[in-house]
Amino acid sequence: MDMKLKSVAVFCGASKGTTQNYTDAAKAMGQTIAEQGLTLVYGGGEVGLMGTVANAALDAGGEVIGVITKSLEKLEIAHTGLTQLEVVGTMAERKERMAELSDGFISMPGGYGTLDELFEMITWTQLSIHSKPNALLNINNYFEHLLAFINTATESGFIQAHFRDMIIQDVDPSRLLEKLERFEVPAKKLY
91: exposed, middle or buried (C-beta count within 10 Å: 0-12, 13-18, 19+)? Predict the structure, then answer.
């Protein structure tokens, strides 16, 4: 059963990374989200890939909702040109609010914060806290080692194969959004 996405959260770095490919991918992701009539939900920053994906969506006429913590508001230079900016107290509240506002999640290259967001949303799907899809925009094979680790964890019996398989990935933003819409929550039990 395909779901109809209305909004998508994008998790990505407050840095631009070391190659132009990351910036180009963030621009393409933001533009594609807007062109498909979806609302972009993201971490509310003006810098790094976060700012790039938001600006690309805005430039393409899209709606963009940022969610940022009070402490990061100054550190990440909160984006003041968004459709909506919400300021919350904690990182936990930030993730919870982004999850409430989104029908699915896309992780792009980023650091510890991005990985934290990625794994929390996957875990929430696994635990049936929500039934939303999780995807990786795998630019420059950025997530290959992470996916290899997840395969090792699966082969070692710590992640069940049906939960490993719920991580969607692609290098093309349009195809990735199509895969998000086709996502079905695994019917298998947790243990």
Answer: middle
**Do 146 and 108 contact (CB within 8 A), yes or no?**
no
Tokens at 88, concatenated:
């919350």
Sorted by sequence, the CB contacts under 8 Å of residue 82 that are 6+ apart come out as 44, 54, 58, 64, 65, 66
By C-alpha distance, which of 80, 85, 64 is closest to 8?
Answer: 64
Provide the CA 33 distance to its chain's centre, in angstroms.
12
Could you read off the pLDDT tens digit of each residue along the chain, which spans 191 residues?
466 899 999 999 999 999 999 999 999 999 999 999 999 999 999 999 999 999 999 999 999 999 999 998 878 689 999 999 999 999 999 999 999 999 999 999 999 999 999 999 999 999 989 999 999 999 999 999 999 999 999 999 999 998 998 999 999 999 999 999 999 887 766 66
Q: CA 32 to CA 172: how far, in whole Å?
A: 10
Matching CATH number, 7-142+163-182, of 3.40.50.450, 3.30.300.130, 3.40.640.10, 3.10.129.10: 3.40.50.450
